[in-house]
Amino acid sequence: MEWLQQHAWETWLGLAMLLGVAELFSLDLILLMLAMGAVVGVLTALIGLPVAVQVLAAVAGSVAMLAVVRPSVVKRLHDGPTLLQGHDKLLGRTAVVVDEITRESGQVRIAGELWTARPYDEDVVIEPGCRVDIFEIRGATVIVHKIPELDF
């Protein structure tokens, strides 16, 4: 027991390394958080605090890591990019007007497909050849707005 007190920081460091290696096999981030608690034990042992304080600090560090850090890290690891499917992937894209767009009629070409189109502002008429942004999709009709063009 006296040896552990004299070599406390080495013992904590060995425990931290052992837990870190074990985490490589579990990949659940629990053992990694416990290893971080053992690192807190290393720091308290280097300061020279009693073994009871080292154990309490290591436990407190582990619990804090498990409660605060792990949930956010796990959430970030499990969240990926959202996969847009169907009509949602067309929103925000650019289309070319094929047939004049008015309140009653119009067509645009989006990625090689023809779509019925209506203007976002119902009083606007958009001529063929203009580029438009897709704001909304209602059924099989896209609601578009003309992209302003710079004249040189």
How would you sum up this structure in a few lines?
By secondary structure, this protein is of the alpha+beta class.
Fold and architecture overview:
The chain is of the alpha+beta class and 152 residues long. 46% of the residues lie in helices and 20% in strands. It is built from four helices and five strands; from the N terminus they run H-H-H-H-E-E-E-E-E. The protein has helices spanning 2-6, 8-26, 30-47, 51-78; strands at 94-99, 107-110, 113-119, 131-138, 141-146. A five-stranded mixed β-barrel has the order 1-2-3-5-4. Strand 4 and strand 5 (141-146) form a beta hairpin. Helix 2 runs antiparallel to helix 3 and helix 3 packs antiparallel against helix 4 (51-78). The longest helix is centred in the middle third of the chain and has 28 residues, at 51-78. It is rod-shaped, with a radius of gyration of 31 Å. It starts with a helix and ends in a 6-residue tail after the last strand. The model has no long low-confidence stretch (mean pLDDT 90).
Topology:
Elements: H1 2-6, H2 8-26, H3 30-47, H4 51-78, E1 94-99, E2 107-110, E3 113-119, E4 131-138, E5 141-146
Parallel strand pairs: 3-5
Antiparallel strand pairs: 1-2, 1-4, 2-3, 4-5
Helix pairs in contact: 2-3, 3-4
Features:
152 residues; alpha+beta; five-stranded mixed barrel; 5 strands
Number of helices: 4
What gap, in angstroms, lies between the N and C termini? 86 Å
Main β sheet profile: 5 strands, mixed, barrel
Helix content: 40-55%
**Sheet with most strands: strand arrangement:** 1-2-3-5-4
Structural class: alpha+beta
Order of helices and strands: HHHHEEEEE
| Low-pLDDT segments | none
* Radius of gyration of CA atoms, rounded to a whole number: 31 Å
What is the general shape? rod-shaped
Question: How many β strands by DSSP?
Answer: 5
What percent strand?
15-25%
Mean pLDDT: 90
